[in-house]
């Protein structure tokens, strides 16, 4: 079976990173059919450096600035391979990523999404493996039985660590939501989980770049991401896959409560309370109760070691 994969790389002002990303792709072997670098109106010299490679597999597409979703969507429409992966310009694949994806495709031909685990990597080179749910077999590849429920316990795949059949995206009309730069990738992953099965390898074969923030909550969104609101709305419709509904409710609840916790940490407790007492927050009762405790306790008490689990 011939497998051809198009890798979509959205590029915006990441001149110092992009060549490392592309090299990590090209080193993966023959499964990489093409690398589509979609320049989203960069103002640095990143796109010129890519063009200077003059590599037969690398195709540059220039467009006006419209955000990462529009760049990825253009890559989807321009892709010529039967499968598509997405790699941000400051992330990298590790050796063996595409080989593992090929093995997943061969081993689980009925799936529509194929993914590996990943590392979070900091600027100092430190790497931390992503969370793998306890329900998974950490020693072998497998089909994910309840992906949204598992995702609610920790993000076990990343935008850069999954591969999708191109025809699945078009058949289900799944594209990245325009105008959203945070949570847009989760929206696509949620919809794919609702539409097709996911084959997963626990091997961490991709590195997701982490930025250093001034504090734990400083760079996190303090508003409810639309992807969680939409997920909850879809889960309430009659035709939603019944085997996924409980996991979707739980995942939406996590989104509401995570936002509430960020607001609490920023001393915006009245806004947090509005989220906590909305109906979607209640579907993960233990997490809801722990978040309510955070809301009610003075901030200084939350520094006590025995309360850090809340």
UniProtKB/TrEMBL annotation:
Gene3D superfamilies linked to this entry: Spore Coat Polysaccharide Biosynthesis Protein SpsA, Chain A (3.90.550.10)
Keywords attached to this entry: Transferase
Domain Glycosyltransferase 2-like, residue spans: 6-142
GO molecular function, one term: transferase activity
CDD domains (UniProt xref): Glyco_tranf_GTA_type
Keyword Cell cycle among UniProt keywords: no
Pfam families referenced in this protein's UniProt entry, alphabetically: Glycos_transf_2
Name used for this protein in its record: Glycosyl transferase family 2
